[in-house]
Amino acid sequence: MRIRYFAWMREHTGCSEEQLALPAAVLTVSDLIDHLSSVSDGHALALKNRKTVRVAVNLTFAAPDTPLCDTDEVAFFPPVTGG
């Protein structure tokens, strides 16, 4: 699985992209956030507010219950504001 982080989430995680072999217990986007939050303090900080974190799976916005598979690309980014 390819995981991408954008904006300040990249700064907190320390990377813009990482590869992950999908653990058997990770079935949904919500499960993935739980798993990634345990990787490091930076990951936990980047993903702590699930209401503001936006997620896309294979370039399509995804809900917490969206199922995942090992070949997916998952992108995490903060909400975008205009000005």
Concise account of the structure shown:
This protein has 83 residues and is of the alpha+beta class. Helices cover 27% and strands 22% of the residues. The chain contains three helices and five strands, in the order βαβααβββ.
Secondary structure layout plus pairing:
Blueprint lengths: L1 E4 L2 H6 L3 E3 L9 H9 L3 H7 L6 E4 L2 E2 L11 E5 L6
Parallel strand pairs: 1-5
Antiparallel strand pairs: 1-2, 3-4, 3-5
Describe this structure in words.
This protein has one domain (2-77): Ubiquitin-like (UB roll). The longest helix is centred in the middle third of the chain and has 9 residues, at 29-37. The chain is 27% helix and 22% strand. With 83 residues, the chain is an alpha+beta fold. It has a 5-stranded mixed β-sheet with strand order 2-1-5-3-4. A hairpin with a 2-residue loop joins strand 3 (54-57) and strand 4. The chain has helices spanning 8-13, 29-37, 41-47; strands at 2-5, 17-19, 54-57, 60-61, 73-77.
